[in-house]
Amino acid sequence: xxxxxxxxxxxxxxxxxxxxxxxxxxxxxxxxxxxxxxxxxxxxxxxxxxxxxxxxxxxxxxxxxxxxxxxxxxxxxxxxxxxxxxxxxxxxxxxxxxxxxxxxxxxxxxxxxxxxxxxxxxxxxxxxxxxxxxxxxxxxxxxxxxxxxxxxxxxxxxxxxxxxxxxxxxxxxxxxxxxxxxxxxxxxxxxxxxxxxxxxxxxxxxxxxxxxxxxxxxxxxxxxxxxxxxxxxxxxxxxxxxxxxxxxxxxxxxxxxxxxxxxxxxxxxxxxxxxxxxxxxxxxxxxxxxxxxxxxxxxxxxxxxxxxxxxxxxxxxxxxxxxxxxxxxxxxxxxxxxxxxxxxxxxxxxxxxxxxxxxxxxxxxxxxxxxxxxxxxxxxxxxxxxxxxxxxxxxxxxxxxxxxxxxxxxxxxxxxxxxxxxxxxxxxxxxxxxxxxxxxxxxxxxx
Length: 447
Ligand SMILES: [Zn+2]
Prior knowledge:
Bound molecules: zinc ion
Shape: elongated
Helix content: 25-40%
Largest sheet: 6 strands, mixed
Radius of gyration: 24 Å
């Protein structure tokens, strides 16, 4: 099985099993966080374990002792002597479904409509598990390179692999790492995501009074803390929505662009609301800064009394271009917060942390094989994109294995609505991902 046509046929034959396996996984609400049944997550672990075994992985077992309390599933297949080792990654836990009435069909009952399979986790990231198992199945359990697989059980609420990996380096050591938890920019357009932004978060508290007092008696000359905080927040952007914080300069973006209509739809943006910022969507998302208020402590409107608010807090998140230091950006943000605080109000920063972005090294044999496999599978040139979000695991892997080539791809296109209602995966896209991975392992072995 060496011609792309033969590989195509072998992959196509795996699809009925692949789709059945995906449905089986989607039926399990494996939400790995407090308030959801633990037994369901463990059931997803067992099913994943069985599917890995059935696909031809060996030494399949559950890794216990992860900080999150849910097992990761490990498996491997020894490659021919002298061949590289490829580590495949996916996760079996999912986001909660959110409000059921926003779904067109029940979130945990997989349904096919117009070539897409709907259900929570159908894309993120149960499609990743299926891509990996079907790849190995298409190769009849005999890949031309060494394979390791790790399917994590608590990715969505803080990946506990991040602390586990540094303590178990032998288990994860590989020449190539495939993070199968991503997707093409649009269905059918082969895409390699080569950069991820960094992130910094802090809480800022503004205080003007030792205690609340009556705003009728004291309001006017005495400043309230919430208005002081709002004035600080209002300095983050200029009127066009460009970030206006001294020292935070966006990086340059040279890769692909995002189609605006598709992006607006994916973002759930209301029809008349503007996109903000002067540079292109892709430049802002993948090479620019973004700053958002993600939480606010202030009195609730219900039961609000006539009082001057003595203290208010905001949780602020800053996204950082992949090639810039997150620690440095965090320091600049703190400096900014202090310098724009009005009226000599007291300002205190707490709970701050920063993590750098990621830049893949794309000049090695694995990236060459990946580009070749994508061309053979899609008959199109590959687009290079970034991701505005971070994948903390990617940082841990690149720190621990600086020589490894890390490839980020999968079947989660922009229309997949991961984390939202009506999540879905395009089944033909999933087949192309499996085809790409199968071709990739062969091309890698030939290099
Ligand atoms: Zn995911």
